[in-house]
Records
---
Amino acid sequence: MSNIFPKSANKLPLQIVIYLVVLVGLATAGVTYYMTPKYTRVGYAPVQPVPYSHALHVGQLGLDCRYCHSNIEQSGYANLPTAQTCMNCHSMVKKDSPLLAVVRKSYETGESVPWVQIHQTPDYVYFNHAVHVNRGVSCVECHGKINEMEVVSHQKSLSMGFCLDCHRNPEAHVREKADIFNLDSPTIATKSGTEAGVKFVHDWKIKPPQSCTGCHR
Amino acid sequence: MRNVYLVTFFIAVLIVSVFGLRGRHFTQPPIEVFPEWAFPGMKHQPKYKPQSESKFFADGRTDRPIPANTVSRTELRTDDELYLGKAADGSWLRGFPKSITVDAQLMARGHERFSIYCAPCHGALGDGNGITKQYGMGATPTYHDTRLREIAEGEIFNTITHGKTNMLPYADKVTPHDRWAIILYVRSLQRAQNGTVADVPADHRSELGLK
């Protein structure tokens, strides 16, 4: 019988095994890097029907978040403002601007302004805005520095790991009541040390749930 | 074997160059790792959420207006003093409704709400010099003239609720209780702007550098 396989074929099984290990390693790295909200959602900045600048209205004019998102302290849902909210000022300021045509039409006809939602949890996650802002969690913790954004973009991953980071260590993330809507404010922990954060969490009876049903229903 | 590694390397480079790195800005809707067709009814459940879209109702909204001639439970407003700012005889109420407790807590609440909703136009001092004035919002009146110092509390309440001339209604943003809190704070601003040395108790005058 002649030699069908050359001698080098003896090494082949080992080489295949090594290659498979490399391949699985690469695939794992790819999945870890790409199949997460850190990749799929962070940076999402859709084109909105009105090019509203938070940097101008909040950062420069100093409007409070609650001027527009007015139910945030009572409601689990952070409401978008009514067209009338815009018209409170824009019936006089830049009242003929073509950029505001959609808002004027909405105000006159009652049609909705088709804003595009950026931050979105899956429907099986029940996130309550009021509970968070009334318990020392500032907007900036989940939304980033909106007050500096010309166009709002998705900044934090809002993955389950992201939620749990804070639910397990709230003392590192809480702010004084007066600082909740001041997006440039430091956390209690950075201002007065971790112990002050721990004390705040204790005094305010902040007990973030870590059980599944805390957020999933 | 070397060729296999080269091909793998090029595929990896290809994937990275197609999908890019984390953190770039993009306007297209995000990719779903677990797409709706494979896992129906999980991420997007057939339920209505606030301010979302409905294909069922003619106006395209899930939020429904309150039907005519109905009142939501707990929303029956029979107290004219509290909800309309009117006294029993139909005139504007002077002072505060009986159901409102005027205390430091109400004042603090009024300060907070005033700073959010009123100060942008009326200014932190109530002098009509809010930030919007620099952007073309003209003629915001000052609180510190005789007419507004003597106006009835109930009429201020009515102005916040329904607006007046250029000012649009704030009823959807400021609850009736908060409107009274704001009125209390406005009264304190008016008092402060028209105070004299005689108003400061004698033993506190030195703290303000007064004699």
Note: Residues 14 and 201 of chain B are 79 Å apart (CA to CA).
---
Amino acid sequence: MSEPPPLVTREAVALGLPGALVAAGVVLVMLLRLAGVPPLEPPERMTLSEAAALESDADVVRLLQAGADPNAPARVRRSRIRAVGADLTPLEAAMTSRHVSVMTLLIDGGARLDPAQVPVLWCLALSHRNADAEAWLRSRSAGPFPSDCSRVRMPEVAR
Amino acid sequence: MTASRARLVAWLLAAVLAAGVSVSLLAIPIQVTDSLIPLLQAQTAPTWRAAVMSSADSAGYLRPLRIGQIQWLFDVASGHYFLVYKSFHVMLVVLCLGLFTRAVRVRSAGGVWALALGLTVLTGMHTFLGTVWEAYPINHFLEVVVACLFVYVLAESRGGWWVDAAAAVVFAVAALTLESGLLVWVVAVVAWLAGGRGLSSRGLMALTALLAGYLALRFGYFSTGLPTLVERSTGFGTVKLDPVELTRRFGDRPLVLYGYNVVSSVGSVLLSQPRAGVWTLMAERHDGGVSPATVMNVTGSLLTTALLSAWAVRRWPRWRLRRFEQADRAVLVALALVLANAVLSYGYTKDEILSPAGAFYALAVTLVAREWLERRAADAPTVASVTPGRLAVLLLLAVVSGGWAVRAVGLHYQMHQMAHDVRNEWVTVDLWLERQHAAPTTPEGRALVRVLREDALARVAGNPWGLALQGTRVFR
């Protein structure tokens, strides 16, 4: 007497299981959302410096509108720019990540290019050989633009 | 598993995946490019009729209902633009996956597993991405996919006068929305020729009469002509060419470009290469290394197309005798749609233009897989032991389905990347409008831009750091 046909063949599982796992993943993500755990990192953990480092223009504008200080150093967590984290001003973060467009947004939002900040930014631009950033700085500031950066206190993350 | 339980599981599966796509879709703000200017135009249109008529005789195209729909939703929105346009988009996604599931007609456990594969092929296909990650501000390509699937489901139904009437209405709306809407006629005709009798011969004649009417209206009454080389950029070889370069290279021999576009479009659906006319496989190799995403896409498509080809070869003797089953019809409609869709893309080729062909490719894969799995289950008297040969087959199947599952996950990655990019576009929207010579001159226009900008910036998409992790090498 022959046995009844199998309910599910191995071939069926091999073909359909990945798709079923995708569906299970969707369910899991939605359950996490309902529980208040977003699948991507919660945006409130992002500082203005981090938004600048990640070239997230919209978050830069959002955080500035929400009252974030465009001149205050803030934490940029590890692996956002380099393997280690660092405390950077938003302008330093943008320059370290080579995002000139974000720097313009920050200036428009109240960031200052004061004589203490400019040499740091200038040396960051030089170290990255970022001609656009050099030109941008020269057009926005009277300097100083040191030729010897060894005497400039650079952020640790840029070394 | 009983047939009713299998159907229930199938619908649950489709609902879950549709919900997932919808959630990712809702993370994307209304776009600046492609959406803002149509919305500003909708705001200044005096009436719905005026908006439709103003677009009816534009050069190269006849798309009055495209503008009509944008205008209609704008009027309905009364300020709630994101809610209305995105709800409409979500509705299209639900309809697409729902009609796809209905077309598969799951009746067994094998059907459920085949549908699980098919839904990942549908949503993981690069041609689907363009239907969900952008809108103009309605995604008309997705509307055409829905129209084609709807008429296919009608062709597989028991028929009736209302089936013929519904098909005629859907065809008319689709054709007057986008040129790709003409593919609805192809679906109806090929399904009928392959034995689908949901649509009657009278209904088919009505569709053909409407097609003739469309051609007369477009080329006779409105004399819109056809798009020219200067319309759009398109890929050729390993690069994308702008209209100036296209005219320089192909101005005196456009048929070369048109032929290339048609062949490229067929290859894009069946092999995932080229993409929008560009052989990214070669381009990446030239630039220093082929990405894992491209390797996976091409391998998955090659194997799946091989599966369909094997089916076609095996069934050819029956087809010659005009004996068709449901899976045969799906394969034949898919094949016809790939060719017809490619011909319609002669002027320029983009992934989303091929979305109807992509959807029916997925449908054909699903139905062939369902047939094969059901026969396999019925033919196997016992659970066979795993021989080396069978193990190899199982591994191959797992590679195929695993690759498509990764592509389906990639859809969400790319949609969230798009959400991030679109939000950033809104930051410099005024500059963009100036460059387009489309800056609003009225207080109402400026207010519309401000409202949409604030909405986009407030729609936090999550930390982009999570998106930056090598994802573009895995998902394309």
Note: Chain B touches chain A through 62 residues (CB under 8 Å).
